[in-house]
């Protein structure tokens, strides 16, 4: 086995969700999968296309797509940046369609770094960042995204952490696991640091349409971003289609050319049919309203869950969620109540306690990096009934704990 790969292990979050999958007694708040599905426009396009039986097997969707993505989908992606931000992104040279944001992240790290190079990651951060960097034999350098700093990374700290072998800075806004939004000023300052050091800033914006505190802006739309930033995005969260595996990256021409080369060696191209129907839905501005409606529902669900969890007096919210699907709550009080010894991880113990005593699955914050210790993550993207059931169980647990106090 590749020795760098051997250094990685399955992520804790995935381990927990795999363990509880199929157990009807557990309410699973580990996974960030939206409770809604793809827009009707997309499913109608799929039905129309696959109804074209007489043309088989020559129907275009049976054939390999262009390895950078179908021209229609690349145009739709470019059109989306134009419609949302007035931003021109050349679909021919600056867009690459990938198997979800996950493949885009892998490809960008692979294509822009050599073994031994450093990649700056926030601490805590999304579960895939560190294993991708480590499995590729690159070195992760963690920069604090501390609660006191709104769970975002400080541009000065990035400047201090960047050394001669640093090539990339990976940021995620709105963020998983914290729900933090890196406001445009701070993102622009991070781009300035990256540009000054000859690095690229990679902005993972998969939660772009779930930004609740300020309008989302992709790094490529900010000053210096056209040259020094790359965005990674997907339809997984936007259209509730995590299982379809469709995403993209957009950035400077030379970056996209290198990434496209790597992508074609790994996968040749993304599925043609999926791209064709994704293009129809993404190009249709009327679908944006449906996406906004879904985002409001999810936001309200999160606010309701937060209020109910805070009322238990077992968790604290240091940074109110600004976007995304997750509550990242401090759990020291609950850890104290259940008597977790100092030598143990409070977040692991609390997540274990909630699973055992309330049958609610959450993810210990330490799974996202050392500075995630002391927090637990709850996803509120699950269907409303499931989130409500989890809240009722946690309320019952809280009531039982209050009664147990002598
Ligand atoms: C921050 C972040 N980036 C990337 C991904 C992967 O998304 P995709 O399904 O598009 O591969 C996720 C999935 O949860 C995520 O939370």
Summarize the structure in words:
It is a single chain. With 406 residues, the chain is of the alpha/beta class. The protein is built from 15 helices and 12 strands. Helix content is 43%, strand content 13%. α3 (40-50) crosses α11, α4 packs parallel to α11 (272-283) and α12 (286-310) runs parallel beside α15 (384-404). The longest helix is centred in the C-terminal third of the chain and has 25 residues, at 286-310. The radius of gyration is 21 Å and the shape is globular. Pyridoxal-5'-phosphate (PLP) is lined by residues 32, 100-102, 126, 172, 176, 204, 206, 234, 236, 242, 247.
Short description:
The chain has 406 residues and is an alpha/beta fold.
Write the layout of secondary structure elements.
Blueprint: H1 3-6, H2 12-20, E1 27-28, H3 40-50, H4 71-85, E2 95-98, H5 100-112, E3 118-123, H6 129-135, E4 139-144, H7 155-161, E5 166-172, H8 184-197, E6 200-204, H9 225-228, E7 229-234, E8 247-250, H10 253-267, H11 272-283, H12 286-310, E9 326-330, H13 332-337, H14 346-358, E10 360-361, E11 363-364, E12 375-379, H15 384-404
Parallel strand pairs: 1-10, 3-4, 3-5, 5-6, 6-7
Antiparallel strand pairs: 2-8, 7-8, 9-12, 11-12
Helix pairs in contact: 3-11, 4-11, 5-10, 7-8, 12-15
This protein binds pyridoxal-5'-phosphate.
């Amino acid at each position: 086995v590749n020795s760098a790969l051997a250094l990685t292990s399955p992520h804790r979050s995935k381990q927990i969700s795999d363990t509880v999958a199929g157990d009807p007694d557990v309410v699973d708040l580990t996974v960030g999968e939206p409770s809604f599905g793809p827009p009707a426009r997309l499913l109608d396009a799929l039905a129309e296309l696959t109804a074209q039986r007489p043309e088989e097997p020559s129907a275009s969707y049976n054939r390999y797509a262009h390895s950078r993505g179908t021209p229609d989908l690349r145009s739709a992606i470019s059109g989306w940046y134009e419609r949302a931000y007035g931003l021109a992104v050349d679909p021919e040279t600056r867009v690459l369609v990938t198997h979800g944001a996950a493949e885009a992240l892998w490809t960008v790290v692979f294509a822009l770094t050599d073994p031994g190079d450093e990649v700056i990651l926030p601490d805590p951060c999304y579960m895939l960042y560190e294993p991708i960097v480590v499995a590729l034999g690159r070195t992760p350098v963690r920069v604090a995204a501390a609660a006191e700093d709104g769970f975002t990374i400080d541009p000065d700290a990035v400047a201090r952490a960047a050394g001669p072998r640093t090539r990339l800075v990976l940021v995620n806004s709105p963020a998983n696991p914290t729900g933090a939004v890196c406001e445009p000023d701070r993102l622009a300052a991070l781009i300035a640091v990256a540009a000054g050091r000859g690095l690229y800033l990679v902005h993972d914006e998969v939660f772009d349409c779930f930004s609740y505190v300020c309008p989302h802006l992709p790094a490529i739309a900010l000053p210096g971003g056209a040259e020094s930033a790359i965005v990674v995005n997907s339809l997984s969260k936007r259209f509730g289609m995590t299982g379809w595996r469709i995403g993209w990256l957009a950035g400077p021409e030379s970056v996209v050319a290198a990434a496209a080369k790597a992508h074609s060696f790994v996968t040749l191209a993304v599925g043609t049919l999926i791209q064709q129907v994704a293009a129809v839905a993404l190009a249709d501005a009327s679908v944006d309203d449906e996406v906004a409606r879904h985002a409001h529902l999810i936001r309200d669900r999160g606010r309701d869950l937060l209020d109910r969890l805070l009322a238990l007096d077992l968790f604290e919210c240091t940074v109110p969620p600004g976007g995304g699907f997750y509550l990242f709550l401090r759990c020291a009080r609950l850890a104290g109540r259940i008597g977790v010894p100092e030598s143990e991880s409070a977040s692991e113990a609390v997540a274990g306690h909630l699973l055992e005593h309330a049958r609610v699955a959450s993810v210990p914050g330490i799974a996202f990096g050392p500075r995630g210790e002391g927090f637990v993550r709850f996803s509120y993207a699950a269907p409303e009934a499931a989130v409500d059931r989890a809240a009722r169980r946690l309320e019952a647990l809280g009531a039982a704990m209050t009664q147990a106090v002598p």
